[in-house]
Amino acid sequence: MTHSTPMAYRRLGRSGLQVSLFSFGSWVTFHNQVDTGGVREMMAAARDGGVNFFDNAEVYANGESERLMGQALAQLKWDRLDYVVSSKFFWGLDRGAPDRPRINGCDTLNRKYLMQAVDGSLQRLGLDFIDLVFCHRADPHTPVEETVWAMHDIIEKGKALYWGTSEWSADEIRSAWDIADRHHLHKPVMEQPQYHLFHRRRVEREYARLYEDTGLGLTTWSPLASGLLTGKYRKGVPANSRGALESVSFLRDGLLDARKNAAVGELEGVARDLDCTVAQLALAWVAHNPRVSTVILGASRLAQLKENLGALAVLPKLTADVLQRIDAITAGLAD
Ligand code: NDP
């Protein structure tokens, strides 16, 4: 199945910004698996498929991912109104030497780091502003108030348009939102959590009250659990797959989980009945949740991206009966 269904767009939470239901991200792939030409080709294909949001982070390939995306954007020359770019800050780029570790430039959301980090990302991306900036993880050592003021100031200076969080607890998000509300500052608009068939609790339960209370939008990550939900790990780790990369070897045990791979085998039966691939089924399942503003796709090859955008056509096929079959197969396997 190829992607002939038109892209859908959803508001990023309560904000006025519309993002494509499927977006495209660069973690692991840009620079490590895909070079300049490949990045340009995939971003162009994504745009042709209606994608308007491209996700990035300072830490991806230690800044090289932003640099590659910036080069592609410069070559593609799209109208700036037609696309949305993100970056994320927390880990920093340079941790210093073991005997002289950097003190303020990594693992932090302090004001000094954030104000400098955004300038570095702007430079690498070659942009005048970044549409969405995320606090990539929570920082228990910096007062939330300091971080909220810094994110507000980044927006006030015109360096970013909206800010949000990634993998913050519901309490942490609410406390940031409350501080912003109290001081009439720019509020966090979106969160970027992991969400897929084997990882559901945070999006479906922990954040449940935030959607109505704060208007939280979601830009969800790893919809295929790094490839597990494509079925490619059912017989071990294929060469040229993410599971074979040493740089992300921490993912390998999870990708080879026997019970989850058996469930993926059963999901393939459901996918066959719907005339789609199991990857498309898993992606459509994420998109089916109305709390999700955009599902960030990852792809190391153009063919994967095209297949994955085909999930749009599967969405209307997710009837209550199909959803029940999926729940029965994955019961007890999701955290
Ligand atoms: P997925 O879970 O969809 O994994 C993508 C990978 O799975 C691809 O790179 C490819 O890897 C494999 N794959 C994808 N489609 C297919 C297919 N049709 N057939 C076979 N293999 C396929 O998403 P990501 O983990 O890449 O996450 C998506 C984005 O989310 C990231 O790019 C990033 O922007 C964001 N993210 C954010 C995080 C955060 O903390 N905020 C954390 C992680 C991601 P391969 O070919 O190498 O096997």
How would you describe this structure to a colleague?
- It contains twelve helices and twelve strands.
- With 335 residues, it is α/β, with parallel strands linked by helices.
- It has one domain (9-228, 286-300): Alpha-Beta Barrel (TIM Barrel).
- The strands form three sheets. It has an eight-stranded parallel beta barrel with strand order 3-4-5-8-9-10-11-12, surrounded by five helices.
- Helix 5 links the parallel strand 9 and strand 10.
- The longest helix has 16 residues, at 258-273.
- The radius of gyration is 19 Å and the shape is globular.
- The model has no long low-confidence stretch (mean pLDDT 97).
- NADPH dihydro-nicotinamide-adenine-dinucleotide phosphate binds at residues 25-29, 33, 55, 166-167, 192, 221-227, 230, 232, 241-242, 279, 296-300, 304, 307-308.
Largest sheet: 8 strands, parallel, barrel
Mean pLDDT: 97
Under CATH at level 1, the class stands as Alpha Beta
Level of helix content?
25-40%
Radius of gyration: 19 Å
